[in-house]
Amino acid sequence: MATMKYKRIMLKVSGEALAGDEGFGISLRMLSFLAGEIEQVHKLGLQIAVVVGGGNILRGIPASAEGMERSSADYIGMLATVMNGLALQDALERLKIDTRVQTAIEMREVAEPFIRRRAIRHLEKGRVVIFVGGTGNPYFSTDTAAALRAMEVNAEVVFKATKVDGVYTADPLLDPSAKKFDELSYIDVLNRQLKVMDSTAISLCMDNLFPIVIFNLHEPGILRQLVFGEKVGTIVRGR
Is 0.70 surpassed by the pTM of this model? Predict the structure, then answer.
């Protein structure tokens, strides 16, 4: 019988993914699909941490480009991640999966404050932990929050969920001749300016030799494939 390659993972899900085909807001259909994918691997005993983005409600950089003050835009984006995290918690708990939401921006009525040791204990007890509020600071993306939290809770890998099945030389939705990378180094990503994660997140992973796998969230069963070490998506690591 095949054994899992990982025991504890960090799953990074963008806000856009939670919007589904609607393109804005929270898609209940997409929430249910994501919760079902998480359920498959949770049943195997995998310890799962999740960071959710907020781009389905507001993205800080585009908002600041339109004239909104950058810090204000980023804080609004952080609050959007809280809404997404609570929605995902509800979807998981409807599947009878114990879930905790921890936030970098304190709001005790709706979520726990982020406490590293408590988060690790939740994971050890088999609870899914959803980290929201980004890092709690403007100018840092939820990609960076995912890398940071992954290392803080001693995860083994960051799984970055996207709309395509890996990293390409160009946008495959726009350029049919784009070629897929099976593996990249951190330096390749930075030098080629590939839009895998933001450069701060990549640099943090590079400094700590922390692997990242980019995959298509919309492929049913792919999370299970990744957990068992199958070669899907694109892996970014040191060479």
Answer: yes
